[in-house]
Amino acid sequence: MRKIFAQGCEDNIEWGKHVMGYEVTEDGVQAIFADGTRSVEGPLLVGGEGIYSKVSKQLSEGKLKVYDTGARGTHGQTPSASFKGLGEGVFRLLDDTRPEGSVFVITNVRPEEMDDPSVSFGWTMGGHPGVIRAPNDDYTIVGRTAADIAKSLTQKWHPRFRPLFEDMNESETAFWKITCSTPSGVPDWPNQPRVTVIGDSVHSMTPAGGIGANTVVRDSALIGRLLREAGGYKAGVTERYEKEMRIYASEAVRESYSTAVKQFGIVIDEETSLTV
C-alpha cells in the first residue's frame, strides 16, 4: 500500500525524520522534527504517523487517546508458494482449543503471484491477553524470537496451514500490541484550520473486522475531495473533514472494539485503562 500511495510523490518524500509536533506560522504550518530541523512551510499539515502521533496529541490537546488492550500478536512474511494449500481469498484462521485463550491468523492469498519466487505474502497473528508474550514485554523485538513463538503456537495445526509459519522469513517477523482508540467515539477538539489527522493517529482499531485500513483510505478520499472542491487549501476544509470523519470513524472504532471484546476477551475502561 505504501508503494501504491507513494507513486508520483517519490521526489517529495523525506525519510528518517521523527515528527515531534508542529508550529502554525503566519502563512502556513511547519512540522518540527526530533533533530531540531523543520519541514518546508506548507498550507496544510495532515498527521498520519500512527498511534504514537505527536501531531494528534498537540492538535487535540491530549483528548485523542490510544488504549493498550493487553492482547498481543506477531506478523510476518512467507514466500507465496507456501500458500498454495489455501487457495485464493482472504482467510481468518481461528484456534480456540487453548485453555489460556484463542489464537487467530489473518492473511490474503493472491493466486496470480503464487509462482513468483520473489513474492512473499504477509500474515498477522493475534491472541487473547497473555497468549502471546514478548520477552520482558519488549515489542520492539524483530526476528527469530517472534518467529519461534508463531511456530510454537501453530505446530499442531493442519498441514494445509503450517507452511505459512514453517517457511516464514524469520528476520521479518515482529511483535505488535493490539490497541484501540476511545471506544465511545472520536472526541471533539478546537479546530485548527491548517492541521488535521488521519488513520491510526485519530482512530486506532483492533484487527477485529479488518476495517482499520479501509477507514484511513476513506479519510484520505474525503479530505482529498474537499481540497479538490475548494481548489486547494481553504479555511474550513479541515473543519468539514473532521465533522464528517468523526461520525464514520466513531462507528468503525465501536464496531472494531465490540467485535474484539468477543474475539479477544479485551475490556477497555476509559477511566482507568492505561493508554499507549
Automatic annotation (TrEMBL):
Pfam family, one: FAD_binding_3
Known cofactor(s): FAD
The FAD-binding domain, residue ranges: 12-255
Matches recorded under InterPro entries: FAD-bd (IPR002938), FAD/NAD-bd_sf (IPR036188)
Keywords: FAD, Flavoprotein, Monooxygenase, Oxidoreductase
Coiled-coil annotated spans: none
Protein name in the entry: FAD-binding domain-containing protein
Species the sequence originates in: Podospora pseudoanserina
